[in-house]
Design a protein that fits this description.
Strand content: 15-25%
Oligomer: single chain
Radius of gyration: 27 Å
CATH superfamily of the domain at 3-67: Macrophage Migration Inhibitory Factor
CATH architecture of the domain at 3-67: 2-Layer Sandwich
Order of helices and strands: EHEEEHH
């Protein structure tokens, strides 16, 4: 009998909600039972799901209270986005680039062989 534990923070997923709704939990329960049946052949009626909701103050990540970790992580991502180097521009999709290791891809192989003889 599969037993699946779901641990989430008690934060709403829609504006104004302060926790996961009954409808959302029902969808999660069904999705997990369907997944275990589809992937492992486990009968849906044998699957037990335990849904735990915790206050954000009761969790931590990276040695910090979760709220602090999230704030720091957002700042780090914003900072790294500012310093990210843009990749070089890609050639135009219509441009044919010759690769000397694969001349057959552009038809250049015939021209090179004729020139080398």
């Amino acid at each position: 009998m599969p037993i699946v534990n779901i641990l989430v923070t008690r934060e709403g997923t829609t504006p104004g909600a302060d926790r996961t709704t009954t409808e959302q939990k029902t969808a999660v329960y069904k999705g997990i039972a369907d997944l275990l049946f589809d992937v492992m052949g486990k009968p849906r009626e044998d699957t037990t799901v335990i849904f735990h909701e915790h206050e954000i103050e009761d969790l931590s990540q990276g040695g910090l209270p979760l709220a602090d970790y999230r704030r720091q992580h957002v700042r780090d991502r914003q900072t790294s986005a500012l310093h990210r180097v843009r990749p070089p521009a890609q050639p135009d999709a219509g441009t044919i680039r010759f690769n000397p290791r694969r001349p057959h891809e552009t038809g250049e192989g015939e021209r090179l062989r004729a020139h080398q003889q």
